Amino acid sequence: MSAHTSSRHRILRGALAVALVTGMSGVLMGCSDTESSAAKASAGQGAADASGDKRLADLAQKAADKGSLGVIVRVVRGSGAPVEIARQAAWTKDDHRLAVDDQFRVGSNTKTVTATLVLQLVAEHRIGLDDRVEKWLPGLVKGGADITVRMLLNHTSGLGDFLLTPEFLPSLTGRERRTWRPEDLLAITPEQDPPAEPGEKYSYSNANYAALGLILEKATGRGLAELIEQKITKPLGMKDSFLATNADWSAGKRYVTGYEPDAERLRDILSPTVDLPEGVGFVGPARPGSNIDTTGIDPSWAGAAGAMVSTAQDWQRFLTALMSGELLPEAQMEQMRTTVSAPEEGGGYGLGLMKAHTPCGTVWGHTGGLPGYSSEVYTDAGGHRSVAVLTSTNFGIKEKAAATANKALVEAAVCRMLGKPLSSERPSE
């Protein structure tokens, strides 16, 4: 598989970091002015909430049955108890009974944590957004004399991605067990195809955040896992969250089993864009429906770009703390929210933060994907409401039926978070 074909880069990068899909027509139900008492209004709202929650649970089960396999949905609406849903395909119960508080590999959502750490140091005048990468990592990043820290954060550096290089692909699929250092990944990172000058355009690359992880360690003299614990997870009480340094999970904790299509199905899924060689696929125990258990694939290579393990509740706690101003001063939050155009992410990309336009409103957050794990976590603009949708496959939700059901679920969950009804909840239906 060529590492220098842009269309191939896009499909695999997209599968590894599934963005929120938009486009469903949102029809908002107006408030009734015929109710004569607050009690009736309250009862009506309660019935509407119950109906909406049931609809969301039904969509979650449908998504699981259509190919998502396992789904965790958690919605915090600013008041009342969270909506918590766990649904799975029947055969997966033999492997693991899914629960809302299971640990999960959150993939590229890690980038928001990395960006937060960088911006905390910017606020302390220890790192400058306009610092040249060469200042911090001399000789490690191609073109580093012209790339700034800001460009790494918002993916405008001009760097390509290492994911599709022949050297790295065996590790991605689990066929090769190798400990990758960020320096090693930067050494095999190609230029974008077609080439782009630093600052010229947005193009998502995990290499940007591999470099940022090294800058953080050099600026502080501490390891990345230690920084995350001291600055993020411990202060926020995120007891089920950590940066993975190998394939192990927390001792004594429940975790989600992840799956991917076998080599034949994977080849069919990617065939419209990628000419995947026969036999190339993920390594792990074979499971029903031509699936592979990918839970044991080592994600440590992802590092600052995507190696965190967390839960729906923990990650919502982080994202709401961030968006409500608890972790960064106002000036740095303004920088984080300053976006460049990123249509493939559903809107724009700031400094480690996505701005996505959905049928029910604009949301902020990130997406994540690793073999066996796909996640979308968002808040409203002020961090008062949040939603997490965690799915126990990544490439599997690229198949048509699975993609359609997953899209409907994510959009419905966002609408529930924002307090907006779905089109299926119109009075005429």
Topology:
Layout lengths: L5 H11 L21 H31 L1 E7 L6 E6 L15 E4 L2 H14 L9 H4 L12 H5 L15 H4 L9 H6 L18 H15 L3 H13 L5 E2 L15 E3 L1 H8 L15 E2 L3 E3 L9 H4 L1 E3 L1 H12 L6 H8 L2 E3 L4 E3 L4 E5 L2 E10 L2 E7 L6 E6 L8 H19 L11
Antiparallel strand pairs: 1-2, 1-14, 3-8, 4-8, 5-7, 6-7, 9-10, 10-11, 11-12, 12-13, 13-14
Quick overview of this protein structure:
This protein is an alpha+beta fold and 429 residues long. The protein is 36% helix and 15% strand.
What does this structure look like?
The structure is a single chain. By secondary structure, the chain is an alpha+beta fold. Helix content is 36%, strand content 15%. It contains 14 helices and 14 strands. The chain has helices at residues 6-16, 38-68, 110-123, 133-136, 149-153, 169-172, 182-187, 206-220, 224-236, 263-270, 303-306, 312-323, 330-337, 400-418, and strands at residues 70-76, 83-88, 104-107, 242-243, 259-261, 286-287, 291-293, 308-310, 340-342, 347-349, 354-358, 361-370, 373-379, 386-391. The strands form three sheets. The chain has an eight-stranded antiparallel sheet, with helices on both faces. The chain has a three-stranded antiparallel sheet with strand order 3-8-4. A three-stranded antiparallel sheet has the order 5-7-6. α2 (38-68) packs antiparallel against α14, α3 (110-123) packs across α8 and α3 (110-123) packs across α13. It is globular and about 55 Å long. Mean pLDDT is 88; it is low at 1-42.
Residue stretches low in confidence (pLDDT < 50, at least 5 long) are 1-42
Strands side by side in the biggest sheet: 2-1-14-13-12-11-10-9
Round the mean pLDDT to the nearest integer and report it.
Answer: 88
Percent in helix: 25-40%
Strand content: 5-15%
Sketch the major β-sheet.
Answer: 8 strands, antiparallel
What is the β-strand count? Answer: 14
H and E order = HHEEEHHHHHHHEEHEEHEHHEEEEEEH
Indicate the structural class: alpha+beta
- Gross geometry: globular
Q: Please compute the radius of gyration using only Cα atoms.
A: 21 Å
Q: Give the end-to-end Cα distance, rounded to a whole number of Å.
A: 49 Å
Give me the number of helical elements. Answer: 14
